[in-house]
Amino acid sequence: MTVAGPVTEDERMTLKAAAFGAVFLVSNADPGLLPMVRESFAAADAFAGSTGLVNEVLTTGRPPRLAERGPAELEAEVLPALRRAVEILRAKAPHEVDNYQDTVLGAALRAAAAEGGVNAAEAATVSKVRAALGRCD
Q1: pLDDT tens, position by position, 40-57
Q2: Rounded to an integer, what distance in angstroms lies between the CA atom of residue 55 and that of residue 109?
Q3: If you count DSSP H runs as helices and E runs as strands, how many of each does the chain have, helices first?
């Protein structure tokens, strides 16, 4: 079931690209094919466990296209997108802000821990994601 609401299709793609991009950033902090697969499954579980509009946006439709870029360029794209995603929800679906922040941060943390624990590079990336989401708790 698609949740009809005030969030446009472009805004939904921003929410989705930012969330998937956050996981991709964490995964790239400790590169490797097998770790990436494990991290992707861990993040997918977090997305699937979300509720409401956040669940509908993150688990339906086409996946976002993340440009093939170096880590610095990807970070420069994803972190502002996370801030924008939170702004969109604050303006149009404020009851979903905590859900989105918790889901994306949870997915990033699960991805970081999926391959034998969180290393320093992953922890630093998760901290950047947390800050971009406005979650300094």
Answers
A1: 767 788 899 999 999 999
A2: 18
A3: 6, 0
